[in-house]
Design brief:
heterodimer, A: alpha/beta, Pyruvate-ferredoxin Oxidoreductase, domain 3, Rossmann fold, 4 domains, 7-stranded mixed sheet, B: alpha/beta, 10 helices, 8 strands, 16% strand
Chain lengths: 602, 284
């Protein structure tokens, strides 16, 4: 796959995101698949942030380590991001009279043949009598010109944004024209060639995982959203809130996470679909509520958007460290479902399923996502609106059936699969208590031993039925792969890109991807990993959490793991290298401290 | 009233104020002609929570300190079903005090009945935030170091839209209060001083009978916020009961929600797969 990468850096508030988004949109409309990766700090203004766009005419879902062009808003980028540039790449900046003082930097530039271009932004804006904010469109125009993209493309984008404000529009157009003109002066003969475009990308959607998940929530028929801001779940709250006038949903920003969880459960009990989203620390606060739903058998859906832990850790970075938390949180033993989204496609598709399973089995469902998925920009085909179905399980709404109900139907231990009938407050029927204490079938409190045993069995019996209802993990690759890669969540994109690369395509590699993480379906995993020479887990956590869970679930202890836990996602070359070395048998005996080559139990 | 009768016998101590509150709740619902299937009763954890299976109605018995947000969520999902939340003073002024604050300021449509016996009954009589500082209680033989919270002063500071107080021995008055509270537009705060013969030796049934008086009967106008607050806060000599403050002018939480304006269905009735394609166009 031929890709071109553009990395825009600067302080937060300078316009890194605006420029990134504008470039992404324009390039997609030109016929390219664009994948955007953002890095930012836990600040509002200042710090150092970046927006990298990986662009290709083929499918691209990952970020490359070294880019073709770095566009820096301030001098920090000149210092920090010089080495992000490929050999022969471009460094575009707007710091007047900048000189590289560090001899190593000078040597790097010379040896790597980096073209350093200065855009006299201040001077141009002064000439045009334009406010500093217009610097964004000016620098975008220069990038546009370097990419040999048509000027009209950019004008169209700007027109979309400011169409109704004529003065602003004219000023933007002037800056665009100036950008194109000055590019020929400051970067004569320099172009950044893009591969030949493919028109199939032109009309696709460009959106983040959070936006896709928000659409999935709406699609699923969720009517109430209760949340408390916590990075990286806040964009979901923002999206749903911004859409509320269109969708008619009730949105509540609660005073804390416990409130959010409780309100969601109350709303679900009453019979609508409600959801809450948070990150690890907020989810910790919700766990008693999670446990409650386990015994009241109230459907519940929690989104856990992961970031590094423990404690506050790295609020604006990514990780996959909360899988075991999702599986084990909330005291006591009961049935739950843990799922994980991987990209914009399943961020949309999995939400109706989360609600369906929650209602069918009357259980809490946790949907994992992470900062990388939530904030990355994906090129996505229009979502298929016909796939999702509404499944509400043993919810009784028919008047005649309601009239036949007895209170003891609610928690009937003899119910098939452990799933008893459920009916809503306001239904003309016998009543029951959704009971947090251990209870008899009608929800009355009892401390009887035999009853306790029966109710525990009833609730845990649901686990087997749930597991049987889940799909097997997704497998892509040869029937009997020599190497089996196993992963989950946002690693999917980079794994696909790596497996599609020239060197990898020749290797006999299969990829098993989990979207349903608990209960775990292990049949295909066991079959594939038994016949494979090696099984390699790829996870963004320290403990290889999916590997541990699979070992727990089926006893297979395959310990080759490629792990990353520095707050960043796997980059393309990085994963490719690590994967290639995992394919090579070590020529020397095993050395301590090299866990990715550890073959015990494979 | 006997529609609400449960087959399960009560387990409260002899003389517990819960018997009175329980009776008043059933009576109020019956007099409002609300059937058991038309109401949701939510309980916190405590002696009051043992009511969860002593009354017929749709019920939810949840976590300690969390009855208010649970009830608020239920009410938001279906504002046509009256939702009544019951909580003790331990739950409501310690564990769940944050929820109380935000529920009052949110003005959720629900009735909140405070089972106020100034102690943690079910865990055998510890001091609560409402216990007078000097009282010897379980786990505080020297009294408590913390100053006692003036619950009425606290609640009035949150700009409530309905405040009432009753006591567990006056079932007729509690019934009247609850009937009004259940029909209130927003958050109805109902403080019921209740006898706890086992652990509360200071605000006993006899003491309450002596000191509580019907403020409405004595001419108190519940539209007067300042007077209501003054009356509520001062319990030195007499304790004012009745509907102390009420306004129907403030919209309930859900009535503030612009997306719900003019919507004739409830969120419960709106669950279906929604086509999102028209909103996707802005991402193209």
């Amino acid at each position: 796959m031929v890709r071109v990468a553009i990395k825009i850096v600067g302080a937060q508030g300078q316009g890194v995101n605006s420029v990134g988004e504008m470039c992404a949109k324009g390039l997609k409309r030109s016929g390219f698949c664009v994948f955007g990766y953002r890095e930012y700090m836990s600040l509002i203004k200042g710090g150092h942030s970046s927006y990298q766009l990986d662009v290709s005419a083929e499918d691209v879902r990952s970020s490359t380590t070294r880019v073709d062009i770095v566009v820096t808003f301030n001098h920090h980028g000149l210092e920090k991001n010089l080495r992000d540039i490929k050999k022969g790449g471009i460094l575009l900046h707007q710091t007047p009279q900048w000189k590289f003082k560090n001899p190593e930097d000078q040597a790097f530039i010379a040896e790597q043949k980096i073209r350093v271009i200065e855009l006299p932004t201040d001077a141009i804006l002064k000439k045009l009598k334009a406010k500093p904010i217009l610097g964004n469109v000016l620098i975008t125009a220069v990038v546009w010109s370097l990419l040999s993209q048509p000027e009209e493309q950019l004008r169209a984008l700007v027109r979309e944004q400011f169409g109704h404000k004529k003065d602003l529009l004219d000023l933007n157009f002037a800056c665009i024209a100036e950008g194109f003109a000055v590019c020929k002066v400051i970067a004569p003969g320099i172009t950044l060639s893009l591969p030949k475009p493919d028109s199939k990308w032109k009309d696709q959607l460009l959106l983040t995982g959070s936006q896709a998940m928000g659409l999935g929530i709406i699609h699923a028929g969720c009517r109430v959203y209760v949340g408390y801001p916590m990075t990286p779940s806040s964009p979901i709250l923002t999206f749903i809130a911004d859409m509320q006038n269109e969708t008619g949903m009730a949105v509540k920003q609660a005073e804390d996470e416990i409130t959010a969880a409780q309100m969601m459960v109350g709303a679900m009990h009453m019979g609508t679909r409600a959801i809450t989203a948070t990150s690890g620390g907020g989810f910790d606060l919700m766990t008693e509520t999670l446990s409650l739903t386990g015994i009241t058998e109230t459907p519940a859906v929690f989104i856990l958007a992961q970031r590094p832990g423990p404690g506050t850790a790295l609020p604006t970075w990514t990780a996959q460290g909360d899988l075991t938390l999702a599986v084990g949180a909330g005291h006591g033993e009961y049935t739950r479902l843990v799922m994980a989204a991987s990209d914009t496609q399943d961020s949309f598709d999995l939400l109706p399923e989360a609600f369906n399973f929650a209602e069918e089995f009357q259980i809490p469902v946790i949907v994992l996502t992470d900062k990388h998925l939530g904030e990355a920009l994906f090129t996505q085909s229009a979502f298929d609106q016909t796939i999702a179905k509404l499944r509400r399980g043993r919810l009784v709404t028919d008047l005649r059936e309601l009239a036949q109900l007895k209170p003891a139907d609610r928690y009937d231990p003899a119910a098939g699969d452990g799933v008893s009938k459920r009916w809503l407050p306001g239904s003309e029927a016998a009543t029951y208590c959704a009971q947090g204490d251990e209870h008899a079938p009608d929800g009355s409190v009892t401390e009887d031993a035999e009853n306790a045993r029966q109710q525990m069995e009833k609730r845990l019996k649901k686990m087997a039925a749930l597991k049987a209802a889940l799909p097997e993990p997704l497998y892509v690759g040869p029937k009997n792969p020599e190497t089996l890669i196993v992963s989950w969540g946002s690693n999917r994109g980079v794994i696909f890109d790596v497996l599609e690369s020239a060197e990898m395509k020749k290797k006999n590699i299969g990829y098993l991807h989990y979207q349903y993480l608990w209960p775990l379906k292990t049949e295909s995993f066991e079959m594939l990993s038994r016949t494979a020479k090696r099984t390699v887990f790829v996870e963004c956590n320290h403990g290889g959490q999916l590997a541990s869970l699979l070992k727990l679930a089926c006893g297979r202890d395959v310990t080759q793991k490629i792990l990353k836990f520095d707050g960043r996602p796997f980059l393309f070359e990085e994963l490719r290298e690590k994967l290639l070395s995992s394919l090579t048998p070590p020529s020397a005996p095993l050395r301590a401290g090299n866990p990715s080559l550890d073959r015990r139990g494979a | 009233m006997h529609d609400f009768a449960s087959v399960h016998p009560c387990t409260w101590c002899d003389g517990c104020g819960d018997y009175g509150i329980w009776s008043a709740a059933k009576r109020a619902l019956a007099e409002l002609q609300i059937s058991p299937w038309q109401v949701l009763l939510c309980f916190d954890v405590g002696c009051h929570g043992n009511m969860s299976d002593k009354i017929e109605a749709y019920r939810f018995h949840g976590l300690h300190g969390r009855v208010i947000p649970l009830a608020a969520g239920a009410s938001l999902a279906n504002p046509t079903i009256p939702v009544i939340a019951f909580g003790g003073d331990g739950a409501s002024f310690s564990e769940g005090v944050g929820h109380l604050v935000h529920a009052v300021r949110s003005n959720y449509r629900m009735t909140f009945i405070l089972h106020n016996n100034a102690n943690y009954g079910l865990t055998t009589g510890q001091a609560s935030a409402l216990t007078p500082q000097d009282k010897k209680m379980n786990s505080s033989p020297n009294g408590i170091p913390e100053s006692t919270l003036n619950s009425m002063d606290f609640v009035f500071s949150l700009k409530p839209t309905f405040v009432a107080r009753g006591w567990s021995g006056d079932i007729a008055q509690m019934t009247k209060i609850l009937m009004t509270a259940i029909r209130h537009r927003g958050f109805a705060y109902v403080d019921i001083l209740q006898a706890c013969p086992t652990y509360n030796k200071f605000a006993t049934h006899e003491w309450l009978m002596e000191h509580c008086y019907d403020a409405n009967a004595e001419g108190h106008d519940p539209r007067d916020f300042a007077k209501a607050r003054a009356l509520a806060v001062d319990t030195q000599n007499r304790v004012a009961t009745g509907i102390l403050y009420q306004t129907e002018e403030v919209p309930a939480f859900h009535e503030h929600l612009k997306p719900r304006e003019g919507v004739t269905t409830t969120p419960v009735e709106e669950v279906k797969i929604v086509d999102t394609s028209k909103w996707e166009r802005s991402f193209a």
